[in-house]
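Researcher: We plan to redesign the surface later, but first we want a full-length starting point. Tokens attached.
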């Protein structure tokens, strides 16, 4: 990796000339094509990557195999450092989204360089915090949604009409209207019109009208019930995403606790100050 490309990485911008030259000697270049899978969740973390140019997509898969993108890395970004810090397996998948050139820093070189430059550790911790906040925002926008608002946004004109008809057909208003309509029909054809009745007893035309109304009303009610089932599935999906978010956050808290337990008592700032005294 060239010095100019290394200086473009915000994490290493503050390095002095000697440290930057030393880091360049530790890095090896690697070109990957679009679609190349660099590593998967659970793989051993043996190196950290810097992106000279290109795009890398970081994602995780849930238990059902669905991809959840966490970040899209570009020029000057780095990734893969978590496994080198805590010694655990990779926590996500990394796939090249375009033609990409990477600078690879092996584990042994990474640790030795951090010991000589503790300020870099602070920069990595800051970057990790920003990424965690972006992940929290991503999950919040993906999860914190109202099922009723989501379902309302998908309604078509036919869906709204079906809901209105089904709502009216299952109300006391419809029952009152039907009883009034039947009584008016019978009264009109029995007493008011006498010999000029258009539908005399046994009211064959009325039976035909009722059969047509029932025949049309049944599929409309079923359409409304199907939409209610879709809403229930949407709510179940949102509940699943909320549980997934809680699980990810809990795993992150446990991981941080493990890292804190494994760290020495002296912070990076204290280590840096003690090295200056020496």
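Model: Full-length starting sequence:
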């Amino acid at each position: 990796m060239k010095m100019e490309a290394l200086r473009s990485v915000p994490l290493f911008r503050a390095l002095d000339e000697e440290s930057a030259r030393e880091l360049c000697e530790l890095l090896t270049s690697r070109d990957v094509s679009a679609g190349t899978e660099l590593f998967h969740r659970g793989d051993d973390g043996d190196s950290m990557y810097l992106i000279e140019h290109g795009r890398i997509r970081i994602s995780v898969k849930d238990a059902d195999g669905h991809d959840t993108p966490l970040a899209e890395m570009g020029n000057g970004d780095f990734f893969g450092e978590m496994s080198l810090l805590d010694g655990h397996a990779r926590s996500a998948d990394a796939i090249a989204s375009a033609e990409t050139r990477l600078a690879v820093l092996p584990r042994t070189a990474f640790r030795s360089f951090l010991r000589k430059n503790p300020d870099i550790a602070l920069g990595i911790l800051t970057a990790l915090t920003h990424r965690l906040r972006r992940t929290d925002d991503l999950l919040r926008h993906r999860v914190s949604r109202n099922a009723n608002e989501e379902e309302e946004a998908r309604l078509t004109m036919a869906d709204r009409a079906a809901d209105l008809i089904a709502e009216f057909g299952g109300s006391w208003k419809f029952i009152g209207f039907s009883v009034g309509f039947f009584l008016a029909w019978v009264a009109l054809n029995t007493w008011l019109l006498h010999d000029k009745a258009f539908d005399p007893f046994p009211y064959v035309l009325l039976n035909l009208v009722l059969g047509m109304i029932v025949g049309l009303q049944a599929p409309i009610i079923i359409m409304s019930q199907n939409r209610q089932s879709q809403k229930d599935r949407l709510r179940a999906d949102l509940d699943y995403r909320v549980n997934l978010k809680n699980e990810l956050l809990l795993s992150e808290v446990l991981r941080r606790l493990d890292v804190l337990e494994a760290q020495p008592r002296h912070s990076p700032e204290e280590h840096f100050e003690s090295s200056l005294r020496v």
